[in-house]
Amino acid sequence: MKTSKRISLTALFLLMLAFSFPAFAALGGDESSVATDMAQMKATVKVTPGDAFAVHEMKGSGGSVVREFVSPAGRVFGVAWQGPSIPDLHQLLGTYFQQYSAAAQAAKAGHPGRRPLNIQLPGLVVQTSGHMRAFYGRAYDPSLLPQGVSADAVR
Amino acid sequence: MRKFFFSVLVTAILGFASGCGSSSGSTPVGVPVGGSGGNKLSIAVDGGPISGVDYEDAAFASAKICVPGSTSSCVTVDHLLVDTGSVGLRVLASALGTVSLPVTTSSGMNLNDCAQFVDNSFVWGQVESADVTLAGEVASNIPIHVLADPTGFAIPSTCNTGGPDEDQLGSATTVGLGANGILGVGLEPVDCLACDQSISGLSTPPTGFYYLCSSSSCQSAFVPEGNQVLNPPVAFSVDNNGVIVELTSPSSSTEASLTGSLIFGIGTQSNNGLGSQTIFTLDNSDNFTTVFPTTGGQTLTSSFIDSGSNGIFFPDSAANVPVVQCTASGFTTFYCPTSTQALSAQNLGANGASSTVGFNVDNAHTLLTTDFSDAVMQNLAGSNGVGTCVGGLGQCSFDWGLPFFYGRNVYVAIDGQAVPSNASQPSPWWAY
Question: Which residues sit opposite B335 in a β-bridge?
Answer without folding.
Answer: B325
